[in-house]
Design a protein that fits this description.
2 domains; outer membrane lipoprotein receptor (LolB), chain A; globular; 317 residues; Phosphorylase Kinase, domain 1; six-stranded antiparallel sheet; mainly beta; single chain
C-alpha cells in the first residue's frame, strides 16, 4: 500500500506541475512573430502548393521561392484555369500566358498575401491596428501560431494569420471584415528550408506571351507635375505612395492599399457602379463638377471606397 500511495502522490505532483511548467515557458510576443514572418517571407527557401479564394474565384498555385546572395527569385504557376505563371526577381515581376487569341494583358494577378506588405515590420502600424497572439494551430501538417490584426476603426479590413512555428513563414491568412471572412489563403503542402533545384524556376509554357506587372527597380517612375484633381478625404493613416501617371494615384496605410483612377477623354455615360470580389471593391462614379469618371479599386470596405470617390475634386490653380 505504501508503494501504491507513493506512486499516486508522485503522479499527482507531476500532473499538478504541468500547468506550472507550461506557464514557465517564456511566451513570445506578437512583435517577435511579426518580425519573424517578415524575414521568412523574404529569406526562407520554400516550395509548395497553396489555394487562394476570394469571392467566387478559387485559384490553386504552385510556388517556388529562393533567397540567394541577398536576392529573391520566385515562380508561381497556376494549376487551374488559364495557363499562367509569374516570375519575380527582386522587384521585377513578369507574367507569362500560354499563347491564345483571348489574352488580357491589362490586369493584376491575384497572388494572395505575397502581394501585401507582409514582409515589412507590421508592428509599426499599432496606431491603426491592434495585434495579438491567439494561440496555436496546425496548417499543412505543420505546427502554427495564430495571430490577429484588428483595425481600430471600421474603415479598413482585419487579418488572421497562421505562421509556421519553426520558421515564421505565413501558412494561412484570412481577410476579415467585422468577423466575416472575405478572402482565404492557405498552403495545402509546403517544404521549407531545403535547397531548390534550378529546374523548378524553368518555364513550362511554350510560345508564351509575357508582360511586366511591375517596373524594374532601376526604372524611375514619372511624377505628375501639376495634378488637375485631388482626393480630399482619406482614411486615417493612408498616404500617397505613388503617382507615377497623371490619372492614377496609389494610397496605402502600410498594409492595405487602394488606387484612384480618372478616366480622361470622352465623358462616360455610366452612373455610379459598385462591385466587389472577396475583399476587393471597385466603385466608379462621375467627379463632382466635372464630366470625368472616377474609379476607386482596392482592399477597403465599400463605405470607405465611396467616401474616397465622393471626395475627389478638380484642382483649380
Amino acid at each position: 500500500m505504501a508503494k501504491s500511495n507513493l506512486r499516486h502522490t508522485c503522479l499527482l505532483l507531476l500532473l499538478a506541475g504541468l500547468p506550472f511548467l507550461a506557464q514557465a515557458e517564456p511566451t513570445k510576443d506578437v512583435g517577435y512573430w511579426l518580425e519573424k514572418m517578415g524575414r521568412a517571407l523574404k529569406e526562407e527557401s520554400y516550395e509548395g502548393i497553396f489555394t487562394y479564394m476570394r469571392g467566387y474565384q478559387f485559384d490553386t498555385v504552385k510556388i517556388v521561392h529562393e533567397f540567394d546572395d541577398g536576392k529573391e527569385i520566385e515562380r508561381l504557376l497556376s494549376l487551374n484555369g488559364e495557363q499562367r505563371e509569374v516570375i519575380r526577381e527582386g522587384d521585377r515581376v513578369v507574367c507569362r500566358h500560354a499563347k491564345s487569341d483571348h489574352i488580357d494583358l491589362d490586369h493584376e494577378v491575384p497572388l494572395g498575401p505575397f502581394t501585401h506588405a507582409f514582409n515589412e515590420n507590421l508592428s509599426n502600424y499599432q496606431a491603426l491596428y491592434d495585434f495579438a497572439v491567439l494561440g496555436k494551430d496546425r496548417v499543412a501538417g505543420r505546427p502554427a501560431v495564430k495571430l490577429s490584426i484588428t483595425p481600430k476603426n471600421n474603415d479598413r479590413y482585419g487579418y488572421r494569420l497562421w505562421l509556421d512555428e519553426k520558421t515564421g513563414l505565413l501558412l494561412q491568412s484570412h481577410l476579415v471584415n467585422r468577423g466575416r471572412v472575405l478572402e482565404v489563403f492557405q498552403f495545402s503542402r509546403v517544404d521549407i528550408g531545403h535547397p531548390i533545384d534550378a529546374s523548378h524556376f524553368a518555364s513550362t509554357l511554350d510560345n508564351a506571351v509575357e508582360h511586366v506587372l511591375s517596373p524594374a527597380e532601376s526604372e524611375s517612375p514619372q511624377i505628375a507635375a501639376r495634378p488637375d484633381w485631388r482626393v480630399a478625404w482619406l482614411p486615417r493613416g493612408f498616404r500617397l505612395v505613388n503617382n507615377g501617371t497623371p490619372n492614377r494615384m496609389l494610397y496605402s496605410d502600410g498594409i492595405a492599399t487602394f488606387s484612384v483612377f480618372i478616366e480622361r477623354g470622352a465623358p462616360s455615360q455610366l452612373g455610379e457602379l459598385i462591385t466587389h470580389m472577396g475583399g476587393t471593391v471597385v466603385i466608379t462614379r462621375r467627379m463632382k463638377d466635372s464630366a470625368q469618371q472616377i474609379t476607386v479599386v482596392g482592399e477597403v470596405p465599400v463605405d470607405t471606397a465611396k467616401k474616397v470617390a465622393e471626395s475627389v475634386e478638380p484642382v483649380i490653380y
